[in-house]
Amino acid sequence: MARKDWDTYFMDMAYMASTRSQCNRRKVGTVLVQGKKLLGTAYNGAPMGVPDCSEAGCMIVEEYELKQVEGKEQMVKKQRCVRTIHAEQNLLLFTDRGDREGSTVYVTDQPCWTCANMLANSGVVEIVFHRPYPKDSEKVRKLMEMKGLVFRQLEGYELPAGILDDVIH
């Protein structure tokens, strides 16, 4: 059996972190790495000590965003849960700025707009994700380009054996 490359190794860890999530909609995990050293892990969920979505239900809000679709402006409706703190946000809450400087974040899912903004100011220099998030994809990519951050989808990645049913909804 071939040894896993570093990208696969750290994305596997992000997926393992996601198994701690109690989110019914999507389990997301992330890890912070500097060089080959793991500095932190996090997953999405309610604040500590507060009932999560599996116990209290999702808190879904609807938002509207003006987007360009085929050259025309359209209002697009988006739904999101506001009970859950995103994995990237938890990672930033529980790691030190000094550790983030020059580091790489591996995240199971492409960051949303809010998380992308936070990561852009966090000191990390690279964000590697597996699953796309089409709702915010274009504007997030533009932000990362403007900030000069390496932002890449891990192509050809396969989930670790036995984890598929736990994280895909």
Automatic annotation (TrEMBL):
Keyword terms: Hydrolase, Metal-binding, Zinc
Cofactor names: Zn(2+)
Matches recorded under Pfam families: dCMP_cyt_deam_1 (PF00383)
InterPro entries registered for this protein in UniProt: APOBEC/CMP_deaminase_Zn-bd (IPR016192), CMP_dCMP_dom (IPR002125), Cytidine_deaminase-like (IPR016193), dCMP_deaminase (IPR016473), dCMP_deaminase-rel (IPR015517), Deoxycytidylate_deaminase_dom (IPR035105)
Segments forming domain CMP/dCMP-type deaminase: 5-154
The family this protein is said to belong to: Belongs to the cytidine and deoxycytidylate deaminase family.
Name the UniProt record assigns to this protein: Deoxycytidylate deaminase
Organism this protein belongs to: Marinicrinis sediminis
